[in-house]
Amino acid sequence: MKWPVGGWGPARTSAAAFTVMAVLGGTIFHLSRHASNTEPMDCARFSRVVLMGFAVANPDQSMGFTLVPDDECRPHPDHDGRIPPFDGSLRVPLGHRMRAGKDLGEQRVPPAEFRQDPSGEIHLPVPRPWRLTEAMFSFGSGDPKATGLLRLGVPRRLNRHRAVVHAVVALKRPLREEEVNDLHAIGLDEVLLLSPGQDGKPFGWPFAYPGLVGGFDAFGSPGSTSRTAEFRRWVSLLQPQDAPALKRLGLDLPELRRRAGEGLVHGFTVISSPGVLEHMAKNPKARSVSLVDVVPEIR
């Protein structure tokens, strides 16, 4: 099967960077080190800015956050019962979102390290690109060929078989979250794309558990399901001193604030049946539907 996605996007690099490549559990990581003016952070701020910022900047990847507030920052006592201080390092599972129909736990993904030196220098893992990475880099091109426009032929062929499909939907114009939910009820493993992505990947918001994921209360109401409100709350917690760390992640604080203020959805991912994908391809609100992965259902 020929995958209708575009070419690779430009990598974000700097002259001050060097890259060491390591292979961990079948996933290639670039352990990248950059000079940074970032001041050292405590664990809660490091988790909020770096871990969650990484997820926003990389909607093609899935991060294994716990669902307990501040759990990443809850140290375990040593053998003498003392609580060790934060050493600048957090390890979380990091891998492909829906790879061969398995979640991160089933994929046995090794933990990836996010680390900050005492000087403030930040070290980030960059996982191996895959088809969803290609689709994200071509998301903002506006070219149906680049974004893999699907029409009825591909979904109809898939409908002959039981399968789970993974795709990226780009909207003709940005919509409010309520309008998107009328178009497609976003599932727990699906991602809202909150910027056009013209200069790289779009901002993604994958967190579906308000007030739980990432250790902050999104709106004070755990019953709320608004992801754009949660994104706006996260951005509101970012401070000017976080700008160097965000830049290290490829994020611009003024642009984050602009997109949070707009509260618009530019696209989303879909993990569903071929029939849902066929319906999405016919919807006049969709500019394109880019097929990423097909997993036959085993019965």
SSE blueprint:
Elements: E1 18-24, E2 27-33, H1 43-57, E3 61-63, E4 89-96, H2 104-107, E5 111-116, E6 122-126, H3 131-137, H4 144-147, H5 153-158, E7 163-176, H6 177-183, E8 192-193, E9 204-205, H7 227-237, H8 243-248, H9 253-262, E10 264-272, H10 274-282, E11 286-296
Antiparallel strand pairs: 1-2, 2-6, 3-4, 4-5, 5-6, 7-10, 7-11, 8-9, 8-10
Number of helices: 10
Strand order of the largest sheet: 1-2-6-5-4-3
One letter per element, helices H and strands E, the order comes to EEHEEHEEHHHEHEEHHHEHE
Number of strands: 11
Distance between the termini: 22 Å
Uncertain ranges = 1-35, 144-153, 211-222
Helix content: 25-40%
Shape by Cα distribution = globular
Question: Which key features would you list for this structure?
Answer:
299 residues; 26% helix; 5-stranded antiparallel beta sheet; 6-stranded antiparallel beta sheet; single chain; alpha+beta; 10 helices; disordered N terminus
Task: Please explain how this structure is put together.
26% of the residues lie in helices and 25% in strands. It has ten helices and eleven strands. The protein has a six-stranded antiparallel β-sheet with strand order 1-2-6-5-4-3. Helix 7 runs antiparallel to helix 9. The longest helix has 15 residues. The N terminus is likely disordered.
Q: What would you say about this model in short?
A:
This protein has helices at 43-57, 104-107, 131-137, 144-147, 153-158, 177-183, 227-237, 243-248, 253-262, 274-282; strands spanning 18-24, 27-33, 61-63, 89-96, 111-116, 122-126, 163-176, 192-193, 204-205, 264-272, 286-296. With 299 residues, the chain is α+β, with helices and mostly antiparallel strands. Helix 7 packs antiparallel against helix 9.
